[in-house]
């Protein structure tokens, strides 16, 4: 019975990972309208950046699934008035849970 639980867990984890990769979307000519904001929970170890655009708010956190570990670098490239030619995001916006789509990659920011 233990092995079935492990197999079910691995199957669900694999489906979730595939879904996250499939749902990645590339946006073009994204304008950021204000400087990002850092939000931390409790003791300050669980932090994320919120980045605001003309169309929606994104979070900027490390994402193991996409091998993204440059959150600070991405945040430093974004400020009020920055326009990025390409922004790759993943996830869904769920307002009642304060979930935002995550920025995976940005290119061509001026």
Give a short overview.
This protein is of the alpha+beta class.
Q: Approximately what portion of the residues adopt beta-strand conformation?
A: 35-45%
Count of DSSP H/I helices: 2
Looking at how many chains there are and whether they match, the oligomeric state comes to single chain
Radius of gyration: 16 Å
Terminal-residue CA separation: 56 Å
Helical proportion, percent range? 25-40%
Widest beta sheet: strand line-up = 1-2-3-5-4
Class computed from helices, strands and strand pairing: alpha+beta
Shape: globular
Biggest sheet record: 5 strands, mixed, barrel
Query: How many DSSP E strands?
Result: 5
Which consecutive residue ranges, at least 5 long each, have pLDDT under 50? none
Summed over residues and divided by their number, the pLDDT gives a mean of 89
Sequence of secondary-structure elements: HEEEHEE
Index terms:
five-stranded mixed β-barrel, 110 residues, 2 helices, single chain, globular, alpha+beta
What this model shows, in words?
The protein is an alpha+beta fold. A hairpin with a 3-residue loop joins β2 and β3 (57-60). The chain is globular, with a radius of gyration of 16 Å. The N and C termini lie far apart (56 Å). It has helices at residues 2-22, 71-77, and strands at 25-41, 46-53, 57-60, 83-90, 101-109. The chain has a 5-stranded mixed β-barrel with strand order 1-2-3-5-4.
